[in-house]
Every structure is written in C-alpha cells, then in structure tokens.
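ESCALATION

Customer reports they have been waiting on this structure for their group meeting. Please prioritize. Original submission:
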Amino acid sequence: MKNSRRHFLKTIGLSGLAFSLPYTQLLAENEPHPDIEGFVTNAETYETYYIAGRQASVTIIIDKKKKGVSSMSLCFEDIKSGDSIPVHKHMNEAEIVYIQSGSGIFTLNDKEFQIKGGGSAYIPIGLWHGLKNTGDETLRMLFGYTPAGFESYFCEIGVPEGTKWIQKTPEEFAAINKKYGIIYKS
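Update from on-call: job pushed to the front of the queue and completed.
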C-alpha cells in the first residue's frame, strides 16, 4: 500500500502542484471569481483543431474563451509516430505536460529526456521546449497553460475538425506568434 501511494504522489505531485498554484492564488484574493464556481464538461463539448504543417490534432477541453477560465487551461494533442512539436518558448504562460500514452524525446532547454506514458514536465515561462514522438504508436499528451489563453493559438493556426485547410502566409503566422508570445527556435 505504501509503495502504491508513494508512486501515486510522485506521479501527480508536480502536475498537481502546478495546476493548484493559480487556484490557491485565487482563493487568497478572497474575492468571488468565475474560476472558483466550477463546471463539468464532456467530450462532445470539446473542440478539435488540426495544426498547420503537422499531422497533429489539438483538442481543447478547458479554455479561457469558451469556458471563461482565466487561471489555467487543459488540452490534449495526438502526435503521430515521427511527428514533433518544434522547440519553442512561451513568453506569457507556464505549461505543464503529462504523457498519457506513447513515448518520445522531450527537449527542455538544451537537454533531451526520454519520456513515456505516465511521464510529465513543467515548463516555466520563457523556457525552450519541444517533443518528438519516437515510438511506433500515437503519443497522447495532456497539457495546460497558466494563465489560460494560449489555447486560442491553436484555433488561429489550425482549422476545426472537418474543415478544409486554408493555408496561411508566413506573415500571418508571424503575426499570430507575436500575438500569443510564442517564439520558435531556428
């Protein structure tokens, strides 16, 4: 029993801490806030977007725009074998990642880490990071941002599921990247 509890606490420890910090700050403010009211959502309400130039789909579960949650967001991405999230950094939000299934190489600044189902990462504001699926199966990554808002980036660079792809110009991508404070490593 002790070993399974210790394993559980290690597994959720970093994730739980990162997601609870904004909530704790809200409670400390001692004022009503829409994030504290809470809600329940089901899969049929999620929005999925296909990302430009990649094989990946991003599904938005909890977001600032639709759900009104400002402290954090939650999404998942399915990354096919051989596909990757290019190395980049966020200038406005921290990110937390949990690998639900699959395996790959996670880049964090100048280091690379093997990661697999059950693995997680915390990425502070301004830290370079990326992920490559090196396994044979689709890698499913749950991730979120604090504060919320960056998840709308996927709506702007992608297209909703079932919609024909519309190519954006390099200038349009540059403007969207600037708007959301994302910088890609060359």
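Sent to customer with the following note: Confidence is low (pLDDT under 50) at residues 5-30.
Escalation resolved.
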